[in-house]
Amino acid sequence: MTNRMRAVTTVLAGTAAAFALAAGTAQAAPANSVFLYTGTSGHCATSGNNGVAGGVFASYTCQAGIAGYSLSVTAKSGSVSGVYINTFPSLADCQGVGNNGKSGGVFTSYHCQNGVAGYSLSVTG
Asked: How large a percentage of the chain has pLDDT more than 90?
């Protein structure tokens, strides 16, 4: 292998490593975050904003993926009651989000209320 080929190989390897590190960092969620669901960008942001404003989430991230935007949250300490998170198209979707948050320790209980636009998720914790 010539010196030029070694230099090109070294540069390419370094670039690939830097890219992999940056991509891994950008996609990493906090270690204490809890996945709630995957939906549209707007739905994810609304759920995150409602949870932060209601004192349920300390923070949230909407991570783009193949199936949509995954909402991961970090719980906020304290007590909340009846905080509206968002409306989901089916009871199964609403219960899935509720179960993920409850099992992840984000809130202690949830309620899915049937309405005109779908099932509204409210949480207590």
From this structure: 74
CA distance 20 to 14: 10
What is the residue whose two structure tokens read 């089916």?
90
Q: 120 is in which domain, residue-wise?
A: 32-124
User: Domain tally for the chain?
Assistant: 1
Domain contains 66: yes
Residue 1 has pLDDT above 70, yes or no: no
* Residue of 114, 113, 110, 125 lying closest to 37 (CA atoms): 110
Report if residue 3 sits inside a domain: no
Do 41 and 62 meet the contact criterion of CB atoms below 8 Å apart? yes
pLDDT over 80 at 46, yes or no: yes
